[in-house]
Amino acid sequence: MAPCSSWSNLPRELIDRIFRRPMDSKDLARCTLVCTNWRNIIVDIWGKKLSLLRPAFKNPSRRILREYEKFQMDPPKGCKARLVESLFHWGAIMIGPQNSLYAGGVFLLNIHFSKKYPFEPPEITFQTKVYHPNIGQDGCLCLERSWCAAMSISNIIRVIYALFSNPDHEDPLDFEIAHIYRTQRIRYEQKARAWTKKYATARQNSAIDWSQFLMDHKILEPQE
């Protein structure tokens, strides 16, 4: 895509023609949700005073609240989230998918939202140690390539969950693990299972009580 500065030299009539019809402020606001590049282009051409764009920065808590309520009503498979300190800090839990190396493991995550959400991705880190090419040794994840402002936290959690079954070794965070995945698959699988058994237990320390969720998923036995 051409740099924003070249787009700003195009007349408004030509931009309207590219988009097939005249663009009102609501149309522009929707287009900014496609990705960061679109937002930069639109702001560069139409100016930074679009009334529908400013509130997203001033009050991201409305968007986060809507997403939290939706997450509670329709959580991604094997996942649950709760507030920790505020709307901007969630705790989450995942159960490793069946038929994967991480099956039955309990994985805890921290989710932090910035004041620029959704135009900046949430910061998601694993509290639980995971042997995986797409998860850093400190539990970090690289979401910039997967994220756009039109996505929701439920979408990105599903993307992360899918990585348990389908690691992306072509775009790793941990290059050593990715190399082992490509060249010594049996060793990789043995170590991933061993780490899951050792670290991804139901007795991890957490600021949130997940016991009911774990009992619902038959990870913990019901207390008498």
UniProtKB/TrEMBL annotation:
Keywords: ATP-binding, Nucleotide-binding, Transferase, Ubl conjugation pathway. InterPro entries: F-box-like_dom_sf, F-box_dom, UBC, UBQ-conjugating_AS, UBQ-conjugating_enzyme/RWD. Residues 59-201 form the UBC core domain. One of its GO terms (molecular function) is transferase activity. It comes from the Eukaryota. The active site is at C142. The keyword ATP-binding applies. The keyword ATP-binding applies. PANTHER family: UBIQUITIN-CONJUGATING ENZYME E2. This is UBC core domain-containing protein. It comes from Lithocarpus litseifolius.
